[in-house]
Automatic annotation (TrEMBL):
Compositional bias (Basic and acidic residues): 13-22
Organism: Rhodopirellula baltica SH28
Family: Belongs to the transposase 11 family.
Location of region: Disordered: 1-24
InterPro entries per the UniProt record, alphabetical: RNaseH-like_sf, Transpos_IS4, Transposase_11
Any single GO BP term: DNA transposition
Organism phylogeny: Bacteria, Pseudomonadati, Planctomycetota, Planctomycetia, Pirellulales
Gene Ontology molecular function: any one: DNA binding
Protein name in UniProt: Transposase IS4 family protein
UniProt entry tagged with the keyword Acetylation: no
Length: 297
């Protein structure tokens, strides 16, 4: 018995409709967030357009440094753009190209850009943006402190496989997770970060205390959490003509040298006692802090 076949008719779509259908299949649907930031940064980044173009002897470069920065900002501000491939796909969208002033960026070009463009050229841009930030009104209780109050922290960041470093690591070690530590210095009065050092997560030279010790500056009051509690670091801070406030661990050994009377302001703030101590006790090594220190509970 003959088999019945059904002839399928294919209807040709108008050119523009077919293009829109294809675009919706392969490109992420995104709503561009932060348009004011793109408009503000474009003129500040224009001078980077020809950066490293001397290597392009064939004259076929389509991804320039300023455009790369804008695409990275697109990644930062838009949760739907969550990988390098998504950045490449988003760069094909007409609204993205119009807003960012960029061309389509291939995955290969984006991969190369991370190692080609030097981040040092962004420092003048960061300085220009920082100059536009108005200083916040400092807490009046801090007015008697003459040194620059600087909060320091070493935050751990997990980099997903969508990032270049993780992709490379996965190829070489089979692990798709990269952990980086951001060592940040934040000036309390201006509410601005003034320094960020990025290191792999780990001890030794990458330990948060070791990193801080290498970059100490004079005339600062470093405010630290208990992860920075190390007597040799305390002594290095004092030797650099700076001071420190640090939360101590619960098991810290110390000797009380003086009990100070609490003021009404202390009691109102919830201070239980104000004590001058010597950290480490009498039997500790010579690495103990050189000074007797005040301690509030």
């Amino acid at each position: 018995m003959p088999t019945k076949t059904k002839r399928l008719k294919r209807r040709k779509l108008p050119d523009d409709q077919g293009e829109r259908t294809q675009e919706s299949l392969v490109k992420p649907k995104i709503k561009i967030e932060g348009p004011k930031y793109f408009a503000m940064l474009k003129p500040l980044l224009e001078h980077l357009h020809e950066h490293e173009c001397q290597r392009d002897t064939a004259g076929n470069r389509t991804l320039h440094y300023d455009q790369y920065c804008m695409l990275v900002l697109l990644y930062v501000l838009n949760p739907t753009v969550s990988s390098l491939r998504a950045i490449s796909q988003a760069s094909e969208l007409t609204k993205v190209r119009d807003k960012l002033g960029s061309e389509k960026a291939s995955l290969g070009s984006l991969s190369e850009a991370g190692g080609l463009f030097s981040a040092d050229h962004l420092k003048p841009v960061i300085e220009a943006l920082s100059a536009e930030v108005n200083d916040a009104a400092p807490d009046p209780r801090l007015s008697s402190i003459q040194q620059t109050i600087t909060a320091v922290d070493g935050s751990l960041v997990n980099a997903l496989p969508s990032l270049i470093a993780a992709s490379i690591l996965k190829q070489t070690t089979g692990s798709a997770l990269v952990r980086w530590r951001l060592h940040t210095h934040f000036e309390v009065n201006s509410l601005l970060p003034v320094r960020v050092d990025v290191t792999p997560d780990g001890g030794g030279e990458h330990d948060e205390r070791a990193v801080l010790k290498r970059v100490l500056e004079e005339d600062r009051l470093y405010v630290m959490d208990r992860g920075y509690a190390k007597f040799s670091l305390f002594n290095s801070i004092v030797a650099s003509s700076s001071s420190y406030v640090c939360r101590l661990r619960d098991n810290t050994v110390y000797e009380t040298t003086q009990e100070l009377e609490l003021t009404e302001g202390d009691r109102a703030a919830g201070v239980l006692n104000d004590t001058v101590v010597k950290l480490g006790g009498s039997s500790s090594s010579s690495n103990s802090p050189d000074l007797h220190l005040p301690m509030d509970n």
